[in-house]
């Protein structure tokens, strides 16, 4: 068990070492709630201090008013008014639980007015020490806890106009209702704080997951780069033996072969060409993804290339009894890479011938239109649905229908074509009707327009 925890700890430290952001997240998970708790406690302490100061000021103000009133009434021996004032104050402030006025006579403190009428005329020995201090001119307002409840105990001398102390006022003011309300507010505040901390905790956990995702993304990027490098190297290595096979096939003399041998050799040649085309597509994809595809941009005659590429499909179109028509002006110049332009024509015309049923036609046209040269490859094949047209230029996308299930392909040709067109500053579009045929339109700025 110890070894298991030890290995887990070592792995955990290794992950943290390789991902410093995790350590930062752990620090935030601890620091932010701790900071909230500290700041919340400071706020509560400050609030309590302010509350006590306000309570003391209000009690002092109430006593100042009472003492002035009581002084006049005591001087005129109107103790009934003093008693009424005490009862009035207690009625307005339910927190006052005890309120009395005592006078000093015969070395004792006798109650002359009290909230508890039964006390009037009795000697208050319990608070004699406080009364003695008040007789010396001292004012007391202090807190005591009685049976778990907080009280303000107030002792203040009552003086006549000459400054002579004639009596002492004493009261117990309960803070229980205020403390209960404060406790409720504090509890509510703690719940709110706990909720905020919990939300922050969830956000930080999400932050940690995002860090995990970022780490995973970096690893996936590394794996993806390794995959691209492997595919590129593998494709290059495949091209060498294919070139050798192609060379030996060209050296073989067909004159001395039987018809079966000639057929077999032709099938080998077709397979080599297909595999060579696939390797070429893979290399193009790798170059594009790595941003390594190079373009030798120059002024090129599109009409001449269109006629040449269309003519190169004569053997294939003848085998399917498909007529490939070319309609192009004598010359039409654009500023592109010549080999890449040929690749565009090969992909588009090749697809048109491949997806057009036997004994139909394919039209290749070149037009000068509004300062652009448009290249249109039209077939009378199976057509493409509107749904499939939206995904047609996606990587590895192929139209999956009953008519195409026996037609081989990788789904890379049109993606590569679209990427090349975009890199050379052109546009590509498709127009198609299901069951009627498809038109691919590629346009580039005319070279004559760009020079003028």
From TrEMBL:
<dbReference type="InterPro" id="IPR036890">
    <property type="entry name" value="HATPase_C_sf"/>
</dbReference>
<feature type="transmembrane region" description="Helical">
    <location>
        <begin position="21"/>
        <end position="40"/>
    </location>
</feature>
<keyword id="KW-1133">Transmembrane helix</keyword>
<dbReference type="InterPro" id="IPR004358">
    <property type="entry name" value="Sig_transdc_His_kin-like_C"/>
</dbReference>
<dbReference type="InterPro" id="IPR003594">
    <property type="entry name" value="HATPase_dom"/>
</dbReference>
<dbReference type="GO" id="GO:0005524">
    <property type="term" value="F:ATP binding"/>
</dbReference>
<keyword id="KW-0547">Nucleotide-binding</keyword>
<keyword id="KW-0808">Transferase</keyword>
<feature type="domain" description="Histidine kinase">
    <location>
        <begin position="233"/>
        <end position="448"/>
    </location>
</feature>
<dbReference type="GO" id="GO:0000155">
    <property type="term" value="F:phosphorelay sensor kinase activity"/>
</dbReference>
<keyword id="KW-0418">Kinase</keyword>
<protein>
    <recommendedName>
        <fullName>histidine kinase</fullName>
        <ecNumber>2.7.13.3</ecNumber>
    </recommendedName>
</protein>
<dbReference type="GO" id="GO:0045121">
    <property type="term" value="C:membrane raft"/>
</dbReference>
<keyword id="KW-0597">Phosphoprotein</keyword>
<keyword id="KW-1003">Cell membrane</keyword>
<keyword id="KW-0812">Transmembrane</keyword>
<dbReference type="InterPro" id="IPR036097">
    <property type="entry name" value="HisK_dim/P_sf"/>
</dbReference>
<dbReference type="InterPro" id="IPR050736">
    <property type="entry name" value="Sensor_HK_Regulatory"/>
</dbReference>
<keyword id="KW-0067">ATP-binding</keyword>
<dbReference type="InterPro" id="IPR005467">
    <property type="entry name" value="His_kinase_dom"/>
</dbReference>
<feature type="transmembrane region" description="Helical">
    <location>
        <begin position="188"/>
        <end position="205"/>
    </location>
</feature>
<dbReference type="InterPro" id="IPR003661">
    <property type="entry name" value="HisK_dim/P_dom"/>
</dbReference>
<dbReference type="Pfam" id="PF00512">
    <property type="entry name" value="HisKA"/>
</dbReference>
<dbReference type="GO" id="GO:0005886">
    <property type="term" value="C:plasma membrane"/>
</dbReference>
<dbReference type="Pfam" id="PF02518">
    <property type="entry name" value="HATPase_c"/>
</dbReference>
<keyword id="KW-0902">Two-component regulatory system</keyword>
<keyword id="KW-0472">Membrane</keyword>
